[in-house]
Amino acid sequence: MQVEQVVKKKKSLWCSKPSTLPVKVVRLEKWDLDVIIRNDISEVAEIWDAMAPDESFAQSSYLKTLELTNPNHLNNLYVVLSREGKEIGIILLQSLVLNLSDSFDYDNYTTDRSYMSRLWQKIRQLAISWVTVRMITVGNLYLTGQYGIHINSDIFDKEDQFRLVHDLMKILRKELCSTEYRFNGILYKDFFENQAPTDPWSLRLHSFNIDPNMILHLRPSWLSFEDYLLDMRSKYRVRLKNALKRFKGIERRALSFDDMMTHKDKMYALYNKVLEGSGFVLAMGRDNYFTELKNQLGEELHVIGYFMDEELVGFYTWVMEGDKLDSHFIGFEPSLNNKYQIYLNILLDLVKDGIAQKAPSIYYFRTALEIKSSVGSVPKEMSCYFRHTNSLINRCVIPPAFKYFIPHQSWRQRHPFKAVPESQA
Fold first, then answer.
1. Domain range list for the chain
2. Same fold, 14-212+382-405 and 213-380
3. 306, 315 in Cβ contact below 8 A?
4. Under a CB-based contact definition with an 8 Å cutoff, are residues 77 and 117 in contact?
5. Predicted pLDDT of residue 7
6. Which residue from 56, 20, 65 is spatially nearest to 318, judged by alpha carbons?
7. pLDDT the model gives residue 285
């Protein structure tokens, strides 16, 4: 009992804040801004939808899906910035208790099966099993891309936006220190080169890359899937046609909400099988994620199922985000993949969908880089940034940890087309 009292007393010395989110406005004096923080998107939905990009995954309906399906250890926070009563920006934060050994599976991440490689993977896996971080993410762990910072660029340029968020994190660490959202690590997620800060270290941010975003640029001359195949080099065209032939006997079917309710458990099981083989997972929803997503997004979300003898053996999902087609989560039965080439057919069906939608590009996102490049997608690097709130750890521990423990896939970029457009050369 005495020990518990001492612990509580010590805690109160550095954190006297309540265990709930601040109800009142928090001031960010340096920037002359008022800040409100909420954990229910319904309380700020109107403001959020007005300020967020006009994309399905940026709007409040999708964020409500995450609230209803998030695992217990991951929670959304919504920050609204205003000046003199006028909203000038929003920031999406996600609070996560991160156990690194649950997120990284080095054996699945690398294709190098040599003895020394496997030994090194086991050493790394053992080392990170001791590491747990209370992290807050500026962005969305469920998506690839910059979904965190949406601030009026006429008021604050890119560099000021990063400095503003940096100062905000200092304030929030104090304001949230007694809540379930307290944190000692900050992750800034997924920035293309033109979105990235010029000098990350001035904000004590460590830059790192995991996998690039794989993007297929659809050519205006591709009026049909056959046009796409005709632009392929012979050996790639033969391989893709062979994959299409192997797929015979599997029915492709668009799934309604009722269909998804019928196959909900199987969809989640197939999705989990894909995640288990990916080697790197930061966040995954509960078993109602797909049905709730369809419920919230309606016709904006396209869900295609693959059936063999009326049994679901695979599925994929996509939405149109502005002028690009975004692939979302997929699932399939790995034991059938080699025989039926399910994954490759998913990639090809997305090409068909993209051409039908007249989309300039398809965002395939991360993982399975080489096979995605074999259908014509090209990598576009995205940077992430991390800062530990302890300055000594941030300066001395994080750099070597990133160097030795962040996994990198070894893969070969394929060039399947006869000619490369100048824009991609």
1. 14-212+382-405, 213-380
2. yes
3. yes
4. no
5. 36
6. 56
7. 75
pLDDT on residue 278: 61
162 and 197 Cβ atoms separated by less than 8 Å: yes
Burial of 78: CB neighbours in 10 Å, binned 0-12, 13-18, 19+:
buried
- The angle that helices 115-128 and 398-405 make with each other, rounded to 10 degrees, is 140
What CATH topology corresponds to 213-380? Aminopeptidase (3.40.630)
Measure the CA–CA gap between 2 and 217, rounded to whole angstroms. Answer: 65
| The CA-based dihedral angle spanning residues 271, 277, 280, 285, taken in that order and rounded to the nearest 10 degrees | 20
Tokens of residue 328, six digits: 């979302």
Does 3.30.450.40 match the CATH number of domain 14-212+382-405?
A: no
The candidate with the shortest Cα–Cα distance to 96, out of 287, 289, 283, 285, is 283
For 171, the 3-state DSSP assignment is helix
The secondary element (H helix, E strand) that includes residue 11 is: helix 2-14
The amino acid that residue 311 corresponds to is E
Residue-level pLDDT at 10: 40
- Mean pLDDT in each 10-residue stretch from start to end of the chain (425 residues)? 37 70 90 96 96 94 92 87 96 85 53 62 60 86 92 95 96 92 93 93 92 94 97 96 94 96 96 76 79 94 96 96 92 95 97 97 90 96 93 90 73 88 50
Q: How far apart are CA 244 and CA 233, in angstroms?
A: 17
What does the alpha-carbon distance between residue 253 and residue 14 come to, in Å, rounded to a whole number? 58
With 0.90 as the threshold, say if the pTM is over it.
no
d(CA 34, CA 40): 19
AA identity, residue 233: R
Distance CA 196, CA 111 (A): 30
